[in-house]
Amino acid sequence: MFDTLITEFDKGLRTLFAPAQSQRPRPDAGLEEAELSAAEKRHAIGLMRVNHCGEVCAQALYQGQALTARNPAAREALQHAAFEEVEHLAWTEQRIRELGGQPSLLGPLWYTGSLAIGVTAGLLGDKWNLGFLEETEHQVGAHLDSHLTALPAADAKSRAIVSQMRDDELRHADMAHEYGAASLPLPVKGLMKLTAKLMTVSSYRI
Ligand SMILES: [Fe+2]
Ligand SMILES: [Fe+2]
Known about the structure:
- Belongs to the COQ7 family.
- Its EC number is 1.14.99.60.
- Pathway: Cofactor biosynthesis; ubiquinone biosynthesis.
- This protein is mostly helical.
- It has one domain (about 35-205): Ferritin, core subunit, four-helix bundle (Ferritin), CATH 1.20.1260.10.
- It has helices spanning about 1-15, 40-70, 70-100, 105-125, 125-150, 155-180, 185-205.
- α1 packs antiparallel against α2 and α2 runs parallel beside α4 (about 105-125).
């Protein structure tokens, strides 16, 4: 157990402080950088910071959940989703820097909170653990959809990244469902939405 904790702590440090790697080519690889006004750039940076912070949270959630998942099928589902989340982390971080911004300073705070939530979901048992995964992915998918409307129309590169992430998240939700996710009670879904709202409002700015 102590070894596992050390490994997870090490993963946490790498999520927060080392550049993430991607195996797939970036979804915007063939697209030209557009001329954006200063205001458009600032807005795109803010939105991509929110998405990056969401991916930092996803890392922590899945780590917490994989730590406590009991059956190998649930663990495999979590690990597969987590692998693509590392790619999302890489794409959003690179895009923020290309636009001239910095990732949110609140990452470590959200990382710690999400790890605790992930461990808690895992301790409740596999069907709730997967239910939490499915609901998270649904909410993130809907949120990314809204960013496709909110991002500057000319910023085709950010849009291509967000669009691929949205498709991946919805696939993760379906996968959790297939592995036997339970449907979460409405108040829990509401609480998750509220927490996500706090994260999006704060990481857009700080
Ligand atoms: Fe993601
Ligand atoms: Fe996902």
